[in-house]
From TrEMBL:
GO biological process terms on file: mitochondrial respiratory chain complex IV assembly
Similarity comment: Belongs to the COX19 family.
Keyword Cytoplasm assigned: yes
Function field: Required for the assembly of mitochondrial cytochrome c oxidase.
Subcellular location: Cytoplasm
Keywords (A to Z) from UniProt: Cytoplasm, Disulfide bond
Name listed for the protein in its UniProt record: Cytochrome c oxidase assembly protein COX19
Protein source organism: Dioszegia hungarica
GO cellular component terms attached to this protein's record: mitochondrial intermembrane space
InterPro entries tied to this protein: CHCH, COX19, Cys_alpha_HP_mot_SF
Region (Disordered) residue spans: 1-20, 79-103
Ranges where the CHCH domain occurs: 30-63
Length: 103
C-alpha cells in the first residue's frame, strides 16, 4: 500500500488563469456594487440573467480601481448589457414632496 503523491503528477504543469489574477478588494472600493449584485441575486432566486446590469457595474468598478485588467464587456459576456438601471431600481424614484398630482 502506497501513501503520498500519485505518480501521475510528475509531469503536471500549472497554468495561470485565462484572465490573470483576481485580487481581493481589501479597501472595499467596489463593495456597494458587490452588495447590490448579491441583493439582486437573492431577490431573483439566483437568476444571474436578471442581474446582468449589476454584474456589469461591479466589473466596471473593479476595472476602474485596478482590481482587474481592463477588458471589453463583450469579451466578458456583457456586451449587450447597457448601464441603465433595472426595473427593480428606478433611476429617478418619485418623491412625494415634489409630486404635482392633482385630484
Amino acid at each position: 500500500m502506497s501513501f503520498g503523491r500519485p505518480g501521475t503528477f510528475d509531469n503536471w504543469k500549472v497554468s495561470p488563469p485565462a484572465r490573470g489574477s483576481f485580487p481581493l478588494d481589501h479597501d472595499g472600493e467596489c463593495k456597494t456594487f458587490m452588495i447590490s449584485y448579491l441583493k439582486c441575486l437573492k431577490a431573483n432566486a439566483a437568476d444571474n440573467g436578471v442581474c446582468r446590469p449589476e454584474s456589469r457595474k461591479y466589473l466596471e468598478c473593479r476595472m476602474d480601481h485596478g482590481l482587474m485588467t481592463r477588458d471589453d464587456m463583450a469579451n466578458l459576456g456583457l456586451g449587450d448589457v447597457g448601464t441603465q438601471h433595472t426595473a427593480s431600481a428606478p433611476i429617478n424614484p418619485p418623491d412625494a414632496a415634489t409630486s404635482t398630482t392633482r385630484i
